[in-house]
Amino acid sequence: MTPVLWWNYPVWILTAALTGLIVATYVAPVQPPPDQQKKTLVGGALSAFAVGCPICNKLVVMALGVSGALTYFAPLQPVLAVGSLLLLAEALRRRLHALRSCAVPTGRGT
Q: What are the structural domain ranges in the chain?
């Protein structure tokens, strides 16, 4: 059993907050470009890999084995966490920029 590390909690909280903010922007009637949706998906997936225990991740264990997961994958998890948070923050920034820059129809006939 691998212990939960101190940095897992802030990553979980920030991932939930950023993902929630991104999802909240989809209430607006603006269709986002596909690259924003991909960044959100990749950022969320990286967060799951970053905070999950290395030997509980069946894909990593299947690819590297238990000792490989602990030796090679576990040290990479903080890097994955930072990368996932950066992707989510960039997706949110671009999404908010797209919402501000697009003209919203007023509903009046022209």
A: 8-101
